[in-house]
């Protein structure tokens, strides 16, 4: 497997009330193409800060981040936005679905932003909904779906753009344990199809369903 994500000596600082908070402290981590990784730690451990850096939502104050051969620090904001649009799919704890749009329309929306025409969008949306077993619920609105179904719509929305990397931030946090296992099974299937999956979690049981666990505490890599 080729190295897809290379993080070397990365640190991130925040300044609060005249005090410097070191959110990440000299992190070095490689994630290979096709890996299924959990980044695990308690609240405030730095795992979400690292996710934001990996996802090109933020940049580090020190160190080097290379994504698929590109040095992220040398890129402009417009180039970072293009990477997020093409290479990285995000799945969040609270689903982030638009309540007035159907499941189909929620999945379709990012493709509209990409400028794809209706004939191009339709097969991508249907394929993504089928991948999460929700084709029969495509006309339902979020309020008509269970929490697990809403999360599957959110995953389908990510899949429609065909990103090679999926970053999932506490994707089972708002779900019961049985539904959480079902969501992790979807990520496992997507990983078997070749996607790189990175799950941010504080839950040991969720982390153990991945193939590799990276542990954080107080901004440092401990395992």
Automatic annotation (TrEMBL):
CDD domains the UniProt entry points to: ABC_MJ0796_LolCDE_FtsE
UniProt KW keywords: ATP-binding, Nucleotide-binding, Transport
Record flagged with keyword ATP-binding: yes
Positions of the ABC transporter domain: 5-222
PROSITE patterns (UniProt xref): ABC_TRANSPORTER_1 (PS00211), ABC_TRANSPORTER_2 (PS50893)
InterPro entries assigned: AAA+_ATPase (IPR003593), ABC_transporter-like_ATP-bd (IPR003439), ABC_transporter-like_CS (IPR017871), ABC_transpr_LolD-like (IPR015854), MacB-like_ATP-bd (IPR017911), P-loop_NTPase (IPR027417)
Alphabetized Pfam families for the sequence: ABC_tran (PF00005)
Molecular function via GO: ATP binding
Gene3D superfamilies named among the record's database cross-references: P-loop containing nucleotide triphosphate hydrolases
Highest taxon of the lineage: Bacteria
UniProt entry tagged with the keyword ATP-binding: yes
PANTHER family assigned: ABC TRANSPORTER DOMAIN-CONTAINING PROTEIN (PTHR24220:SF692), IMPORT ATP-BINDING PROTEIN (PTHR24220)
Protein name: ATP-binding cassette domain-containing protein
Organism field: Paenibacillus plantarum
